[in-house]
Structure formats: C-alpha cells, structure tokens
Amino acid sequence: MAINRDIKVGLALVVLLSVLVGVFYYIFSDKNKYQWNENYLYDNDQPYGADILYNLLDEYNGNETIELIDKETITKFFNDRKLLGENSEQTKKATYIIIGYDLDFAARDYESLLAFMKKGNTVMLISNVTSTHLFQKLNFECAYSSYGSNYLNATNLFSVKANFENENLKNRKGYNFFYEYLSKRYEKDYYYFGSSFCRALNYETLGTIRPNKTNYIRIPHGKGQLLLHSNPIFFSNRHLIRKQGAEYAGKVFSYIPDGEIYWDKHNKPVKIKKPAMEGNEDDTPFSYILKQRSFKWALYLIYFAVILFLIFNLFRKQKEIPVKFQNKNTSLEFIKNVGTLYFENKDNKKLAYKIMQHFMNEIRLKYFIKDKESEIIIEKLASKTKVDSKMIAGIFNAYSYLEKQEELSDNGLIKFYLKIEKFHNAVKK
User: Fold this and answer.
1) pLDDT digits (tens, 9 = 90+) for 218-241
2) Greatest CA separation found in the chain?
3) How far is CA 209 from CA 9, 62, 170, 241, 402, in A?
4) What gap in Å lies between CA 193 and CA 206, rounded to an integer?
C-alpha cells in the first residue's frame, strides 16, 4: 500500500513543527538557563564558575594586578618573570592561586612551586583532591599523604557549616554552605584533612567544617607558605553572591599577603554526577560540538534530515529479509555453571579462593600493583582508587581468617563476597 504525496508532506510538516517546538523549549526553558557543572573558571558566570572570585580578588588586590597563567607551564611563567633563582627581580611578595576539583602538576612544576614559596611567596591550592607528590616534596615522610580520601558522608548532608580557628575571624553561628542543582539542594560530599594526613608537615589549622574537621591549613616553607583549602565549592559564584559566602571568602583570603596574584587557568573541570533522578552530566565526545553554536545547529540539521529520510522511506522497497539469529555466546553460561558446581558441592572454601584469586588478578592488571605484601598492596590500592584503606584491609583480613578455617559456611562465603562487592561499588563512586 502506497501513501500519496499529500500525506507524506503533512507528516513531514508535523515532524518539523514538533522538532522546532522541542528546540525552542530546550533553549528557553528554565532548566537550561544555567549550567550546573563545577568548573571554577575565572571567566565563567554560571553557578559553579569563579568569575566573582576573580573580580573580588582583583578589587582586594588594589593597585596590584592579577596575571593569568594561560598556555605556559608554571615553571616557564616564573622563569620568564625572573621570580626564581639568585637573579630574581622580585621586590614584593606574590601569591600563586589555582582552584579546581582535582589538581596535579608536572614534576618540574612542583619544584618551581617550592622554590617560589622558599623566597617568601604564597601558594594557595583550593581543591577537593591534590596529588601526594606535593607533600612528598615538602617532606619525604609524607610520600603517601593525601586528603582526597577523607570526606564527610553525604547521607542526609544537605548543608555544612564552616568556621575559623582564629577568634578574630570566627563567626558564632558559622558559615553555611550547600550544593544546589536546578535551584534544588542535594546531598554532597565535603572533603577535609583527616587523621591520615601527614603530621610531619607541621601544618597549622586555619579553618574547619562540621565540628573538628579541618578544611583549611597553612604549611610553612622557607620564608613563604602553602595554603590548602579542601572545598572549592565554597568559592563558587553560587555562594559568593550570598553575604555569608562573600564574608567567608574575604576571611580565607586575608591570609595571603599584599602583592601580585598569579591565577592559574589550568585547573581540571570536574565530571560531576547529577542527582540520581537526573542522570549523569559527564563530558561526552559531543560536549565540544554542543558548545559551538554552528556545530550544534549543524547537528540539529542532520537529525532533522535523518527524520525526513525515515518518513519518506516508511515502506519497504524490497522483499522482506529473513531474520538470522546470532549464535549464542555460552561463555557466561559456562561461568555460571562452574560457580553453581562449587556452590552445590559445598566447596565454599575453594570458591572463596577463586574469588580472591580473581580480585588479586584485577589489582595486578587494572591498577598495576604487583607487590606481594598485603600491607603495601592495601596502601597503593587505597591511593589509586581513593577508597578507604580500612575497607581494603577488611578484605585481606577476612580472607586470611577464611584460610585458617577447615570449613566455610554459606553465610561466611556470602559475607566475604559482599566485602569485595562493597569495594567495587566504592570505586565506581
């Protein structure tokens, strides 16, 4: 049965109208009025951009300027301005600032930052996670020190209070911060410097969150200092438009000296997850295309052309092609049968051995950890996966206990399996 030309044209017009309505709704709806990803870019005016912070620092800095470290490395930037070495032409103290979710630098840049501080300058890093290499450079005893694995449990944590240790800066009620998406508050993890953070650094606590959790510290180095703050979201546009947020930021930055400020643009925009009911907002290969107006509309045009093509080719132009079913892949059935065989034969101890063997193979192949001592494996795996070392140690301790048992109950086998499953779920987060 063929469809006449008028019906085809009518269908095409209906589809075109639907697409246009959808596009206009997408562009002008409140949901897409703002971009809610954490980016902390100095020229971004979205809720979690940092252009208000940049402008506030510019005003706070008075007659001094804020220089942007754009395409060059930290080392090249410092050397070009003769800030390092014996031939330094620096006359005033300066401050290097970078803000982002997860910060890391080239090995040579770590050395440059240390040399910069040693001459009496300030380095300020604001991030949830920072590489352990920096702390290793400051003190060799802190080779595995990190604060990226310490965070408050997000369950029912819709807001957090921050405050200062200095009595002159402390606020009686504290400063309230929260995470919003589409103008609605959601749970969020807030990072801090926990008990695992290296005490050999002799750091001074400057600020806290949620009673007695340190989130702002100062580490002296040479004639200068390193300032570390573990909650960049506190300095986002969303909070700096609030009186509390602006007051808090002003007190945080009161610890930097007068002088030039060097703002490093090379932060890492975070791939944050929207609340579960909203899906994910991770970057995709289409991110760049959708940010470019011409590319975006070209993509829409392609979609529209494909829809039209499908409409005008609704009916087959050849005989029906018989369906050929693919051969079944029996690999999964084989694995299931083997597992069932061990379980039905009540050989739980051997099945536990197989589970642990698979876990150890995963550690070697996925995380490139080939050590044999469990303590070293636990330490390295915790550092690479950002999973609590106690959770990983629990797996090894449980297996060590199972090995010593003559028999293993079904309940014991299930508990051991759930420990490994809990680790995998923690890595996915």
Assistant:
1) 999 999 999 999 999 999 999 999
2) 88
3) 63, 30, 12, 20, 41
4) 12
10 Å CB burial of residue 359 (0-12, 13-18, 19+) is middle
Judge residue 234's burial from the number of C-beta atoms within 10 Å of its C-beta, 0-12 exposed, 13-18 middle, 19 or more buried.
buried
Residues in the chain: 429
Q: For residue 46, what are the CA distances in angstroms to 132, 181, 233?
A: 31, 12, 13
pLDDT band per the 50, 70, 90 thresholds, residue 336: low
- How far CA 364 is from CA of 225, 320, 344, 360, 427, in Å, comes to 39, 51, 30, 6, 16
Helix/strand/coil percentages in the chain, nearest 5 = 45, 15, 40
356-394 pLDDT tens trace = 888 888 888 888 888 888 888 888 888 888 888 888 888
Sign of CA dihedral 388, 394, 397, 402: negative
- Crossing angle of the two packed helices 389-404 and 348-367, in degrees rounded to 10: 150
CA–CA separation, 226 and 117 (whole Å): 7
∠270-137-195 over CA atoms, to 5°?
65
- Where does the pLDDT of residue 217 fall: very low under 50, low under 70, confident under 90, or very high at 90 and above? very high
Which amino acid, 131? Answer: S
Residue 276 to residues 33, 53, 75, 133, 368, Cα–Cα distance (Å)? 21, 30, 42, 34, 32
- Quick one: tokens of 333? 């059935």
